[in-house]
Write a structure and sequence with these properties.
Structural class: alpha/beta
Order of helices and strands: EHEHEHHEHEHEEHHEEH
Number of helices: 9
Oligomer: single chain
CATH class of the domain at 22-144 and 197-235: Alpha Beta
Helix content: 25-40%
Distance between the termini: 24 Å
Low-confidence stretches: 1-12, 14-18
Strand content: 15-25%
Strand order of the largest sheet: 1-9-5-4-2-3
Shape: globular
CATH architecture of the domain at 22-144 and 197-235: 3-Layer(aba) Sandwich
Number of strands: 9
Mean pLDDT: 93
Largest sheet: 6 strands, mixed
CATH topology of the domain at 22-144 and 197-235: Rossmann fold
CATH superfamily of the domain at 22-144 and 197-235: Alpha/Beta hydrolase fold, catalytic domain
């Protein structure tokens, strides 16, 4: 996966953080804490403290994604975790793909607890999806693959869909085209539908949120949040 670090704030973290920085890793839709296992191993081997969380209806969190009714409900595990941290502790939040939306809300709610926010090929919008431009820049457009999603209708077939997952036959092509067949096979066994409530994610601007350092790592071969979308969000 091609990557490019677009912010020099990363070089400042070693001097401003403790000797053992605490990373909180936030997955994208359909994934869970499990998707960070290689990154977690590398960070912990380097002496870092690492927490990987499951957002609501994700990973091994038992909620049915069809009944996660709002983005704030979906993001509640991250909010709970940050609330539980001691006031003097600062963490480095890392979000991948749609995990960036969760990271952004956390910045607005807990700027005093966040040393830096790292977006890895992630949605980085100031306040979520408030405009058509926000959707264009920050939401996946998989129309080139045709009907890319299997939909869930938790409220009944006569109601709007409540969850979605990329169709099994497209998962490797869209999500894991640069991944080993072993890892993509494992991921296919662990993916879950995600609550469509996340597509309406909006945050309220928090005091001092602009003080949090933001670092963007571009994923140049990404087929979900494409490189041109990443560029557009970085420039905003």
């Amino acid at each position: 996966m091609g990557e490019e670090v677009l912010d020099n704030n990363m070089s400042k973290l070693s001097s401003s953080s403790s000797l053992s920085p605490h990373f909180i890793l936030v997955h994208g839709v359909s994934h869970g804490a499990w998707c960070w296992y290689k990154v977690r191993a590398l960070l912990e081997t380097s002496g870092c403290s690492v927490t990987c969380i499951d957002l609501k209806g994700s990973g091994i969190e038992p909620s049915d994604p069809n009944f996660v009714v709002s983005f704030h409900d979906y993001n509640h595990p991250l909010v709970d975790l940050l609330t539980s941290l001691p006031n003097q502790e600062k963490v480095i939040l890392v979000g991948h793909s749609a995990g960036g939306i969760s990271v952004t809300e956390a910045i607005h709610k807990f700027p005093e607890k966040i040393e830096a926010a790292v977006y890895v090929g992630a949605t980085m919008l100031k306040l979520g999806f408030h405009s058509d431009q926000d959707v264009k820049d920050g939401a996946p457009d998989l129309s080139e693959y045709g009907e890319a999603y299997d939909l869930g209708f938790g409220l009944g077939m006569d109601q709007p869909p409540t969850s979605a997952i990329i169709k099994k036959e497209l998962q490797r092509k869209i999500l894991y085209q640069m991944t080993s067949i072993e890892d993509s096979t494992l991921a296919a066994m662990l993916l879950r539908p995600f609550p469509l409530a996340i597509t309406k994610a909006q945050s309220e601007e928090g005091k001092d949120s602009e003080r949090v350092a933001r670092i963007y790592i571009k994923t140049l071969e990404d087929r979900v949040i494409k490189a041109e979308q990443q560029d557009a969000m970085i420039k905003r």
